[in-house]
Amino acid sequence: MLICGVDEAGRGPLAGAVFAAAVILDPNNPIQGLADSKKLSAQRREQLEVTIKERALAWAIAYANAEEIDRLNILQATLLAMQRAVAGLTIRPARTLIDGNRCPRLDMETQAIVKGDATVAEISAASILAKTARDAEMRLLHARFPHYGFAQHKGYPTPAHLAALQRYGACPEHRRSFAPVAQILNR
Length: 187
Prior knowledge:
alpha/beta, Nucleotidyltransferase, domain 5
């Protein structure tokens, strides 16, 4: 039975898309070192990203952009990104394991697993792919909008990011429905 792991990255930041990944690992070709992406260094995540993409039976990465986040809310946008990731797989899994306590609507058996990114290899792999894809997007946003410091804080509400928002206002990639951004826009 093919099992797919699904996880997201980027629910908390004030800017950029929320990313999700879906991964079906090859049980005959295990990958050592899989873990919750937040517990790994950026260098280790990038090494594992290559290995996952080479060895997994199937993988897909998808996202919901800032406009969709503002229109739907962050939870619904996250579930949409997860649906898109699963739909992007080239192999249909029999069962999908989702990190967290909510499942997107899928036409297959799904199960939510709290802290699944730390305990289920497929979810750990998805966690790594979602995080590396989102980090890459934030580096691209940094190149377009360097004064916000996206390459450093990845869009999270750090003091430096909040100061840049105060000074420069919001860029097109900021999530207008998030309170710190909305406050800046409403002043």
